[in-house]
Amino acid sequence: MSGADFKVVLLGTEAVGKTSLMKRYVQDRFHPRPHINTIGAAFASKSVSSRGRQFVMGIWDTAGSERYYAMSQLYYRDAKAAVVCFDLSERVTFDRAKQWIIELRNHEEDCKIYLCGTKKDVIEDGTKARAISHEKVLQFSKGIGAVYIETSSKTGESVVELFQLIADNCELPSAKGKEESVKLQLSKKSETCCSAS
Q: Hey, what's the signal peptide range on this chain (predicted)?
């Protein structure tokens, strides 16, 4: 997991703003440049504090293009949380988000889902119209047991709050659990190396 204690994966179709979301959170930066497709996946990590714990959150930004779809499944393996993104002004991206959720549930059924409506700034400034009502998305997210939040990577609205919520809800392996796992592995090695032939 590249040294991270907790794995988060960003899912969603291309151009919904997954990379911008990650960069705003990790680097507190926004680049208003033309969209560049992520190839495969990009990784970033950040040290976070939550409920008296300090740990490293690893964030995988997966490619949303159809040609990288099968590859994306490799990146969300063992993820504890998934941020499934859609563009608030593009209905098709919300429909695609539903498909990502089905796929995720088929592979990582215990992964917690955070449904994220991106580009809230273009809705609020009137540049684009909202393609699906807040109430409808909220109802859908409640139906699947997901948390719903709307963000803007441009203004930073609700970005830190989203990832802090993920950190607050995460369950890290306990130190005791790690010790028992090491003991079990050592025990198995001993049985293998010392058994009578």
A: none
